[in-house]
Amino acid sequence: MPSQGNPLTSLQSSRRNLIRISAIAASALIAKTKIAAADDFDRQKDWDWWKDKDRDHRDRHDHKCFLRGTTIRTSEGERKIEDLVVGDLLPTVFGGMRPIQWIGRYRYRKSHPANAWVRTILPIRIARSALGPDVPGADLYISEAHALLIDGVLVAAGNLVNDTTIFRYDARELDELEFFHIKLERHDVIYAEGAPSETLLEVDESAVNFAEYLRQYGPVRTKETPCAPLLRYEYRRGEIKSCFRSAISPWIDRRQPVDIIRDKLDARGIALSRRSELVS
After folding, report:
1. Judging by DSSP bridges, how do beta strands 230-231 and 153-156 pair with one another?
2. Maximum CA extent, the chain
3. Among residues 131, 233, 109, 107, which one has the least CA distance to residue 192?
4. pTM value?
């Protein structure tokens, strides 16, 4: 059944999805060209990296999470994530008030100030009110694999990109990116800039302070169950398929739940942009 809603907005969204497909394909071609120009050792190394980045999100240990400066809701009010400590109480969606068990830190630096950041390191910028009125209450910067609770399900931020209110932040002016992730006793949803955002699901050794976790809690032996259904698709191939399903949806609707959520936020982004243009 064709998608419902404003026909003009649906066609605009279709056009934008086709443009996104072209952009994704172009970036993939550029990456393959760079790989082909490398020597044998680097070509194999880069190709292994490329295959790894094209796997399903479930197979990736991408736990960078919240960018430094993000405001987190606590029992004592809003605080910057870098100022939080173990034991601080956070209101959660499913478990009430819960203490922080551990805070993972992830730091990245450019090898040279003139270099661009690797695409997968860049955070996703979710503009104020992108998810709903004043949700988030201020621009939210999180890693692409980090999930937000929307309509009762968890959706990775990278799957929500619409290039109006949700887009990849290029961080050109920054030589260092520092991310923080919050571990509670159990996986749950907290509030970052007022937006419902997941806590750390799986601890891994990529954190710069992983040794602290090992000393305190020992090796991770059990795989935790997500607190809500987790909707993710494969990285580039999945994104192309998803955008294609959305592009043809005004005529043939084969969208999956993650596509429908992204399209709803895309339509909201278009409406907010129009409103902003009218005000200006």
Report:
1. parallel
2. 57
3. 131
4. 0.80
